[in-house]
Design goal:
Layout: H1 2-37, E1 45-48, E2 53-55, E3 58-80, E4 85-90, E5 97-98, E6 103-107, H2 110-146, H3 151-184, E7 186-188, E8 193-198, E9 205-206, E10 211-227, H4 229-232, E11 240-245, E12 252-259, E13 270-276, E14 287-303, E15 307-308, E16 315-316, E17 318-322, E18 325-329, E19 334-340, E20 347-352, E21 359-361, E22 373-376
Parallel strand pairs: 1-22
Antiparallel strand pairs: 2-21, 3-10, 3-14, 4-6, 4-9, 5-8, 6-7, 8-10, 10-13, 11-12, 11-14, 12-13, 14-20, 15-16, 17-18, 19-20
Amino acid sequence: MRLFKLRWIVVALVVLALVAGVWRALSARQQQKEAAAAPTPALNQIELASQDVWTLEPREITQTLALSGTVKALNYAVVKAQVAGQLKEFSVREGDVVKAGQVLARIDPTEYQRRWQQAKDQADAAKSQMEIAQRQWDTNRALVDQGFIAKTALDNSQASYEGAVATYQAAMAGAAVARKSLDDAVLYAPFSGVVALRAAQAGERVSVDTKVLELVDLSQLEVEVPLSPSDSVDVRVGQVAQLQVEDRPEMVSARVQRISPSAQVGSRSVLVYLAIQQPAGLRHGLFAKGNLNLQRRRLLAVPLSAVRTDQARPYVQVLKSEGNQVQVAHPVVSLGLRGSDASDSQTWVAVEGIEAGTQVLKGHLGALREGLRVKFTAQAPASSNITP
């Protein structure tokens, strides 16, 4: 009996310990909930430096369009073989400067010389037959006039003469074709430039339309830029762009020279061609990127970083005087032209809804509660000499 009572006492103690632990856990959780639900003391005032704000004023904003494309030579040619044969002479190589009309390569002309000689001899024989037929016709005409022969003989001689003339003309045409083939055995430079690629070697046999070499004129370069249809709407001939070619530190000026009147099939892009003002040192096929200046206007503008979009409509944080206090206000603004300012490299955006002279908070301050009082560690900026 004593052992039985001892067991019940142990069980009761364990139960009491568990109940006490649960009660302490529930009490701690309740205290945490009450602490979380307790209102946090609101920040009523913030201290700013004079460099945290600036005065809104008109600025010269240049709207730009980011673009990228490939540098291409305005004069670029692929020189191909016009006749088949073996390359007998091929002295130019990549990088060689050539003049317009300079001989670049020669194809073995033996076959074409003999064909031209054959066609020339046939034309000479046809000419002799034509002359004989003409003399016979002239003679028969005189005999008909004198009544010695019938009119039928004159008609036959006239037909023979006309046939001889047609044969001679066909022979001359064949000789001209043979002569052209002989002339095509010599490849000439279509313009002055630099050899960009040599696609064949001396002694190699080439067929018709085989690429022999590529020629470029580096004195006139342009950038071919594909644009979306929406971006191409504001592009005009004469607009100037600043481009960086293959990550070179110096910028290159280019001007819009031509705009394609139609979109490309498949990509639906519109090709714009910008002529490079100073092409010295650049090469055909390089990659270029930069900004095109679309328009320049003087507008009230703020840095894009100062515009906040965490509400339904965009707004900026400004300072507003309420009696003797300065508070944060959130006026809603309408955004307009975006671009750059010559004074710095950040993006600016034109705004409507606030007046010139308003003190605007910079974007690095983050979101501040509307109505928050502001105190300055130094005198607040009062004129446009404060730069953002």
